[in-house]
Amino acid sequence: MKLLEHQGKQLLAGTGIAIPKGRVATTADDAAAAAVAIGGRVVLKSQIASGKRGKSGGILFADDPETARTAAAGLLGSEIGGHRVGEVLVEQGVGIETELYAAVLNDPGSKGPLVLFSTSGGMDIEETGAREPGLIRSLPVDIRKGLTAESVRTLIGETGWPDRVDDELVSTLLALYRLYRSLEADLVEVNPLVVTGAGDVLALDAKISLDPGALVRHAELSAEFTTSATDRGTELEERGKELGLQFIELDGSVGILANGAGLTMTTLDAVHHFGGRPANFLEIGGDAYTKATPALRLVLDNPRVRSLLVNFCGAFARTDVMTEGVVNALEELRPDLPVFFSIHGTGEAEAIQLVSDRLGDKPYDRMDDAVRAAVQAAQGKAAGE
């Protein structure tokens, strides 16, 4: 469950981490009043459980209350990354000297917490890490021993960061780790963690992801945190929930229909392996094949989808039964994009014949070939637009 920025900042402030002065507004008048109370230049930040709000127009600046009112009126009710903006955080403007990055997260590799720190913070940290992985330093933590100030100093020192703010940075990273542990969180991230011209360290953003299964052990979290829109997905994800489908919207262009969570995850990994980006996670195994038409409509309603990959592998579940549901859906919806099949397991001969007879198509003998073709088609269609 992802918390909104202002909720995460409340938790950060409770650990002693400095945050800018701010107020949450749900109307344009509220935003103007908040700007008056804060004084000076303010920033209005859409409160949605999505990243890269700045690039999507979800963060605006205002020099006076009337400008703040106008900016809030434009943001409230708008849709950003599939999320409807219901509230904005009006926050004091900060004179930034340097943007840093700090996070604590669950690390599958070390099977424990991992502390990350970089002197190259900002909204493009993912691209920075992919382009120059050495800019992000990591520190696996032995959960039995915990995080020490000495190890944090070593981590910061690896980046060549100046000594003058070491104490405050060390305290901040230790506080992030304590919060991560106390909440049993999946992720506690501050990006950017900024140093002002006066040398103060402030958390300008907060991204906290909680394990829903652990919430019963955390009575200190108010009802606002556990029942607000923070765990709501995009519009398509909410439609998926209503249909009883396991659907997660992603940022790629290859639409995916597969059976079984394991095979679906493998399909996503294969799309990445061949240079593509999946548009969704959607598992339609079990009785979900009976919802093939609304499931396919869900995938196709994502405007980023440029090709469709259908990957079925059956043992107890018959692939011909699942395939018939998808073929019926394709005949009904008639999508204007290329479709690629990989079908193996129980009933595959009948399923392959079904695709050939009714769609005039031939499934690929190897999953990798189907994935590669879907990736190339998505990239080719995108390049041609």
The CATH topology label of the largest domain is Rossmann fold
CATH homologous superfamily assignment of the largest domain? Succinyl-CoA synthetase domains
Count up the domains: 3
* Category from helices, strands and their pairing: alpha+beta
What is the string of helix and strand elements? HEHEEHEEEEEHEHHEEEHHEEHEHEHEHH
Approximate helicity band? 25-40%
Query: What is the CATH architecture descriptor of the largest domain?
Result: 3-Layer(aba) Sandwich
Beta-strand fraction estimate: 15-25%
- Low-confidence stretches at least 5 residues in length (pLDDT < 50)? none
Question: What is the CA–CA distance across the termini?
Answer: 36 Å
Tally of DSSP helical segments: 13
Q: Give the overall average pLDDT.
A: 90
Report on the biggest sheet: 6 strands, antiparallel
Give the total of beta strands.
17
Give the overall silhouette: globular
Radius of gyration (CA) equals: 24 Å
Organism: Amycolatopsis antarctica
Domain ATP-grasp: 9-221
GO molecular function: ATP binding; metal ion binding; succinate-CoA ligase (ADP-forming) activity
Pfam families: ATP-grasp_2, Ligase_CoA
